UniProtKB/TrEMBL annotation:
Signal peptide: 1-16
GO aspect biological process, one term: proteolysis
Protein name per Swiss-Prot or TrEMBL: Peptide hydrolase
Peptidase M28 domain location: 183-376
Protein family per UniProt: Belongs to the peptidase M28 family. M28E subfamily.
Database matches in InterPro entries: M28_fam (IPR045175), Peptidase_M28 (IPR007484)
Annotated PANTHER family: AMINOPEPTIDASE YDR415C-RELATED, METALLOPEPTIDASE M28 FAMILY MEMBER
Keywords for the protein's UniProt record, in alphabetical order: Aminopeptidase, Hydrolase, Metal-binding, Protease, Signal, Zinc
Organism: Rhizoctonia solani
EC number: 3.4.-.-
Class of this enzyme: hydrolase
Cofactor(s) needed by this chain: Zn(2+)
Record GO terms (molecular function): aminopeptidase activity; metal ion binding; metalloexopeptidase activity
């Protein structure tokens, strides 16, 4: 049976030498193949026989598959939206707001904040974050890791934000039925009607077979701590924006962009004005022998915002941009694009030289010297620049 063969292959690969699961040549997946009887381990809230509505490209009709078939599709390298909760999104593409971004012009405000960024916090935070056996969105440890992350964000706020600035900051959970919630942090701007600026990463992790260990150091523990460090530096500098500036840590990216879809739909349903959204997914890997660079994704994004992000990299970072593609539904920026909002996506390098160890037990900090906190810090610089340049800073 094709399903069983793919499943066994996925389990074997997950404990083998470095593998590449995020590839462009997506493997053909046999939907509707017979399912084996598989016992779900304790600590996981998942029904492998439940039906999910999944879309594998914007040129294909959505298909109904089992949860197990969805897992195997993921292991085979296929990218998709799980639109079970929002089926209307497959048929109603929309455009909401368009913005003119111009060129970066706040260097005197940005550069002093960049000097305060450090690798110390990201190292300590990622060591803890990867200590959870898995951050799979339907697991008990996935919920525990989310609760720890929220407490760390609150602790950072209490420690580094002035009492006055804290009155402008809210930290909340965006609830999801599967247990691991997304986290939304808002710094209230002086003119909220001017449009919201969103900086995001995804907090969950997965192995090719989700019941196996998934430390998720790079995917996407790196993005999670990257934007947390940017937030720390901003509030330590008493950043008081004109626009609302939000930091999002999404749940269930690995399940088909479930968390970000729910959040983006909520904002769309409430007619939110989103000026710009940028995703940070995998920020810490520099393949040996390759040029150190910032990957700027060019497909399924807003071209004007992407051009602006490229200018930010050229203005504020010490390494060059590299335009690259990652395919359909490859990270949470795609949810914002789906609902008509301007989105961008930065990744650790050109797509072909990204970390080969994702979705395995080898996605660890200590697996290779190619994992670099100094490289991740460049992305914290980008997040800081994005917040200040687009969010504005009150006089």
């Amino acid at each position: 049976m094709l399903l069983s063969a793919l499943l066994c292959s996925s389990i074997a690969l997950s404990s083998a030498s470095p593998l590449r699961t995020a590839v462009d040549n997506q493997v053909t997946f046999g939907l509707g193949a017979p399912e084996s009887s598989i016992k779900v381990p304790s600590g996981f809230n998942i029904d492998l026989e439940s039906k999910r509505l999944v879309q594998f490209s914007d040129e294909e009709e959505p298909v109904l598959v089992s949860e197990l078939e969805k897992i195997v599709a993921k292991a085979a390298g296929r990218k998709f939206f799980d639109i079970t909760d929002h089926p209307e999104s497959a048929f109603s593409p929309v455009r909401v707001f368009k913005h003119n971004y111009g060129s970066p012009n706040a260097t005197e405000l940005v550069k002093p904040v960049l000097k305060t960024l450090s690798t110390d916090g990201p190292k300590a935070n990622l060591e803890k974050f990867t200590s959870f056996r898995t951050r799979y969105y339907r697991s008990e440890t996935g919920k525990q890791s989310q609760q720890w992350l929220k407490s760390k964000i609150s602790e950072t706020t209490d420690k580094f934000a002035s009492s006055k600035l804290q009155t402008l900051i809210s930290i909340s959970e965006f609830p999801h039925s599967w247990g691991q919630n997304s986290i939304i942090l808002r710094i209230k701007g002086s003119d909220p009607s001017a449009g919201t600026v969103i900086i995001s990463a995804h907090q969950d992790s997965t192995n090719m077979w989700p019941f196996l260990p998934a430390p998720g150091a790079d995917d996407d523990g790196s993005g999670t701590v990257t934007i947390l460090e940017a937030y720390r530096a901003l509030i330590a500098a008493d950043f008081t924006p004109v626009h609302d500036v939000e930091f999002h840590w999404y749940s269930a990216e690995e399940g088909g962009l479930l968390g970000s879809q729910a959040v983006a739909k909520h904002y769309h349903d409430h007619s939110a004005n989103i000026k710009a959204q940028i995703q940070f997914d995998m920020t810490a890997w520099v393949q040996r022998g390759s040029r150190e660079e910032v990957g700027i994704i060019t497909d399924f994004v807003d071209p004007d915002l992407t051009s602006y992000v490229t200018k930010l990299v050229e203005t504020y970072l010490s390494i060059p941009p590299a335009h690259t593609k990652c395919g359909y539904a490859c990270s949470d920026h795609a949810s914002w694009t789906k609902y008509g909002y301007p989105s961008a996506f930065s990744i650790e390098s050109s797509f072909e030289t990204t970390n080969h160890n994702i979705h395995s037990a080898n996605d660890r900090i200590d697996y290779s010297s190619e994992f670099s906190f100094d490289h991740a810090l460049e992305f914290s610089k980008l997040a800081v620049a994005f917040a200040i340049e687009l969010g504005g800073w009150q006089n």
